[in-house]
Amino acid sequence: MGSPNVGKSVIFNYLTGGRVQVSNYPGTTVEIARGKMIWGGISLEIVDTPGIYSFRPITFEEQVTRRLLWTEKPALVVHVIDAKNLERMLPLSFQILEAGLALLLTLNMMDEARRLGLSFNVPALERALGVEVILATSIRGEGLPQLREKVTAHVARL
Amino acid sequence: MLPDFKVDYSPTIEHLIGRLLPLLKGNYPFRPRAVALLLLQGDREIADLTARQEGPRFRQIQVIVKQAGQLSPPLSSSIALARHRRAQAITREVMGKPSLRPLGGLVDWLTLWPPTAFPILALILYYGLCRFVGGFGAQDLVDFIEGRVFQAWVSPIARELAARWLSPSLADLVAGEYGIITLGLRYAVGVILPVVGTFFFFFSFLEDTGYLPRLALLADRACKTVGLNGRAVIPLTLGLGCDTMATVVTRTLETTRERIIATFMLALAVPCSAQLGLIIALLAQSPLALGIWVLVVGTIFLTAGHLADRILPGPKAAFHMELPPLRLPVMGNIIMKTTARIQWYLVEITPVFLGTSLLLWFFDQRGFLQLIIQALRVPVQRLGLPPDAAQIFLLGFFRRDYGAAGLYDLRANLSTAQLTVATTTLTLFVPCLAQVAVMVKERGLPVAVLIVAAIIPLAFLVGYSLHHLLGVLPL
Lengths: 158, 475
Prior knowledge:
The structure holds 2 protein chains of 2 kinds.
Chain A (H helix, E strand, L loop, with lengths): L7 H9 L16 E7 L2 E7 L11 H13 L4 E6 L3 H13 L4 E6 L1 H6 L3 E2 L1 H8 L2 E4 L8 H14 L1
Chain B lengths: L10 H10 L11 H9 L3 H11 L3 H12 L5 H20 E2 L8 H6 L3 H52 L2 H8 L4 H30 L2 H13 L8 H7 L3 H7 L6 H14 L3 H11 L3 H25 L19 H36 L1 H15 L6 H10 L1 H11 L5 H14 L3 H11 L1 H26 L5
Helix pairs in contact in B: 1-4, 7-8, 7-9, 9-16, 11-12, 12-21, 13-15, 13-21, 13-22, 14-19, 14-20, 15-20, 16-21, 17-18, 18-19, 19-20, 20-22, 21-22
């Protein structure tokens, strides 16, 4: 999950081999998409959610996403954020953590962030939040194999 | 193993959480702390789920939530602020960035700390609205496009061509007193476009810097007294540019209740920029008169908003917005956004102006126009104004600033007290025809009729009281 237009659907397609329509426009995903991922002998259900800015839902899409977290209590939440806007998007990570959901934070759009001269201290961010962090550029597939490994490893530990 | 991450909120909030936690004994998919935070922010869905789980304890929970709802500043903004600060601290620690881009933390802080935030806001509004939109847009650009282009070239040519090629009545429709080109197009492109164009530019500039959400946070409290949340600042401020467009923008408000209140406030007590410019010009000779106008319109704005809040049923929407970082705006973005908004404006609004021309022309042809003006004389004389002023109120209904402009022509014959009464009544009196059309479109006919039916007597009543009150004052 994550804010609108951060690349959730690209990651979903990579993990599931599915074909959710991807466009560079916020709010393209208006329904929940579900897909199956089989990797390393483990089979899991991956869910792609509509964009959500915070746990206090304003729009119908946000309500749908929160209700999903509440009723299905996912084994792991992959929070995808736009690395350029780390500061603006972290509050949603805080809310996922406050809710007690397991989190894997993915700083996406790293190509654009690097172009702006931004750099990230991943171990420090992992320490501050107490969760694992991945750097990715999903449209080029960068960081996605690593993401898949971490997701599988997390589920295997359960 | 789940991490034990915690954001520390203010002592007040932590205390409220502490009181809620022992009451949350049910089985929740979220941690009790998260459930408590959502409850405190007035989340209805979570409240319903909690009520089901906690049974009799829910009473006590409701008491605490109710207390939290009365806090000032509102609890949801304090929570958003605490998260924002934490996010900022973490970002600063882990993100390396080139020194120039996001503006420094000091500026960030200055725009939020009330003692500096309000002066900064005042400066932004003064230079942005009064100087840039009011001065450059409403005067310089309008003088050029309306005066030099339309009055000097387009209108005479249109009149000439219409007279040559069309029957007299059709020529009137195209290029007469209320003609599609000489009135409709001239107003849409010559007067309103420069004003709203500069306003859109100013607005896009603020938007791109990330200042707008801060403004919303600041104004949240002020708006709560009027029964609106901070999001309403945007349409109400836009109303100072053009109420018609602002009424369309009330779509961004969350609940129907808020949309109706904002629509009503816009129609009653928010003068549009063209009207505002003319009113300030009219009253500038007497600071006392200007002061009275500000006082009366301001009081009406607050009282009416407060009353509307009381009367209209429905839940108060909670304000919530994560704060984006302030940054230097990018000119390309601003121009792109401004262009997109102007396009939207032209598509959405131009037909309304053209329709107005058509209607006025039709009324004029049938002789209704004179009849209406005649009928308006009675109430106008009650306000202590000369009968000539009746025309102004009718014109004002078609275009807010047109009414004020008519008053500008009459001002030599009016005393300061009469001017004050006339400008105040005119400010409150009419949502212009375009605004009424948009009100019907956005809110539906019954609501629009109710709003107009409430405003017209109210405006005359205020004008009437002011007329008698001012008789006592030495003006």
